[in-house]
Specification:
- The structure is a single chain.
- The chain is mainly β.
- Helices cover 5% and strands 45% of the residues.
- It contains one helix and eight strands, in the order αββββββββ.
- Strands 1, 2, 3, 4, 5, 6, 7 and 8 form an eight-stranded mixed beta sheet that branches.
- It is globular and about 45 Å long.
- It starts with 6 loop residues before the first helix and ends with a strand.
C-alpha cells in the first residue's frame, strides 16, 4: 500500500540521539531519521556515500582533511565513501539520512554508539 509519512510524526516517535530509525526504503537505499546531540565518533564508510538533510537545528560536519561545514535546516551535505568525518550537533538536531541499506551508523568503528539493528517507524 502506498502511504505518505510525516517527518514530524517520525521524529516524535523516539528520543534517543544517535540511534537512527528506518522511515522508508527506496530500492537498495533507506531513508532514516536520526536525532543528533553532541559529538559523534570519527569514522568513514568504505563502500557507501551518505546524505544528511537537516530538518531542525544545525549540524557541523567535521572532516579530517578539509574545513568543517555548517549545515542548516533545509540544507544537505553528501559525505562521499572513504571520507573520514564526524557529525557534531551543538544543539539538538533532526536529520534525514539517505544511504544504502548496508550502512552501519559508525562505519568502520565499532563502539557503544553502533546500532546494528535499526527500528522502523
Amino acid at each position: 500500500m502506498i502511504a505518505k509519512k510525516s517527518l514530524a510524526d517520525g521524529f516524535a516517535a523516539f528520543q534517543e540521539p544517535w540511534s537512527p530509525r528506518i522511515a522508508g526504503d527506496i530500492n537498495d537505499m533507506q531513508i532514516k531519521l536520526v536525532k543528533l546531540e553532541g559529538k559523534f565518533v570519527w569514522h568513514s564508510h568504505d563502500e557507501e556515500d551518505e546524505l544528511f538533510l537537516v530538518i531542525s537545528g544545525r549540524l557541523r560536519m567535521e572532516f579530517r582533511d578539509q574545513e568543517a561545514q555548517l549545515v542548516r535546516p533545509g540544507e544537505f551535505i553528501i559525505v562521499p565513501r572513504g571520507v573520514e568525518h564526524r557529525p557534531v550537533a551543538e544543539e539538538p538536531c533532526e536529520v534525514v539520512l539517505l544511504e544504502p541499506n548496508t550502512t552501519l551508523n559508525t562505519g568502520n568503528v565499532d563502539n557503544a554508539l553502533t546500532v546494528r539493528h535499526l527500528e522502523r517507524i
